From TrEMBL:
Keywords: ATP-binding, Glycoprotein, Kinase, Membrane, Nucleotide-binding, Phosphoprotein, Receptor, Repeat, Serine/threonine-protein kinase, Signal, Transferase, Transmembrane, Transmembrane helix. It comes from the Eukaryota. GO terms for molecular function: ATP binding; protein serine/threonine kinase activity. SMART domains: S_TKc. It is a single-pass type I membrane protein. Pfam families: Pkinase (PF00069). It is found in: Membrane. Residues 1-208 form the Protein kinase domain. This is Serine-threonine/tyrosine-protein kinase, catalytic domain. PANTHER family: LEUCINE-RICH REPEAT-CONTAINING PROTEIN DDB_G0281931-RELATED, PROTEIN KINASE DOMAIN-CONTAINING PROTEIN. Its main location: membrane. The keyword Transferase applies.
Length: 272
């Protein structure tokens, strides 16, 4: 008989990462907490993508879908799950996600792979370092959003400008820069050039070197989704997403779920 899979859910009375990071003025996340939260999210996604017997894509990784307990342990919640068959590297599906966190190939064409989660993780990692909401923050330097600012800062060698000033000076600047560089790798517009979540976790932990960002952020490799490269004559990182009709996308308007799942919450139950 085949294996059946049971999801054991934890019921928490807790806050989301978004609430703690963007709204809770009387609570400051120090660097150690931010580093741990980021690693927890990466570890959970690595399990879903690479370690579970079912290859699962979350589809809506964002700060409101990361729950924190009283000890600031992070769990991924509110799964809009999609299972990838062993024979397929991607599926084409109706879009279900949140603007500002969706990978371009998924937001525009419904082309879904595990690399869509990697992209979303990159956005969340930048939010963790900067303390700013990618969907709401508008930089003063004519950038479209936090991610746009981060790519420009990386090109200018000024990534440290993104670091949350609430961290003060008592934090590991090398680790913060590493997290931002990993985040930008994850948010590459080309799916094939995004790292796997297992590699992301190892880069965050410093066990492997952070790869170089080797693609101009205004371009995208399109052969893997059979698209006409002519539409990329302009910088499309955010222009096309911004110009999308709201009615053409599914916005997640559900409240943050009280049920969450993380790597240790997934068990395989085999029947004879």
């Amino acid at each position: 008989m085949g294996a059946n899979y049971c999801w054991f859910m934890s019921i928490w009375r807790t806050s989301s990462l978004a609430h703690v990071l963007f709204e809770k003025d009387d609570f400051k996340l120090d660097w150690a907490a931010r580093k741990k939260i980021c690693a927890d999210i990466a570890r959970g996604l690595a399990f879903l993508h690479e370690e579970s017997q079912l290859k699962i894509v979350h589809r809506d990784i964002k700060a409101t879908n990361v729950l924190l307990d009283k000890d600031l342990n992070a769990k991924i919640s509110d799964f809009g799950l999609a299972k990838l068959d062993e024979e397929k590297s991607h599926i084409t599906t109706r879009i279900a996600g949140t603007i500002g966190y969706m990978a371009p190939e998924y937001a525009l064409w419904g082309h879904l792979t595990d690399k869509a989660d990697v992209y979303s993780f990159g956005v969340v990692a930048l939010e963790i370092v900067s303390g700013k909401n990618n969907s709401k923050y508008r930089p003063a330097n004519n950038c479209v959003c936090l991610l746009d600012w981060a790519f420009i800062a990386q090109q200018n060698g000024s990534l440290n400008e993104l670091i949350d000033p609430r961290l003060g000076t008592d934090f590991n600047k090398e680790e913060a820069e590493r997290m931002m560089r990993v985040a930008l790798l994850c948010a590459n517009t080309s799916p094939s050039l995004r790292p796997t979540m297992l590699s992301v976790l190892e880069m965050l932990q410093g066990t492997i070197i952070v790869e170089e960002l080797n693609l101009d952020p205004g371009t995208i490799i399109v052969e893997e989704v059979n698209l006409d490269p002519g539409i990329y004559a302009e910088d499309i990182r955010f222009k096309l997403l911004r110009d999308q009709s709201p009615s053409s996308l599914l916005y997640d308007t559900r409240p943050v779920s009280s049920m969450s799942a993380f790597s240790q919450d997934l068990y395989s139950v085999n029947h004879g």
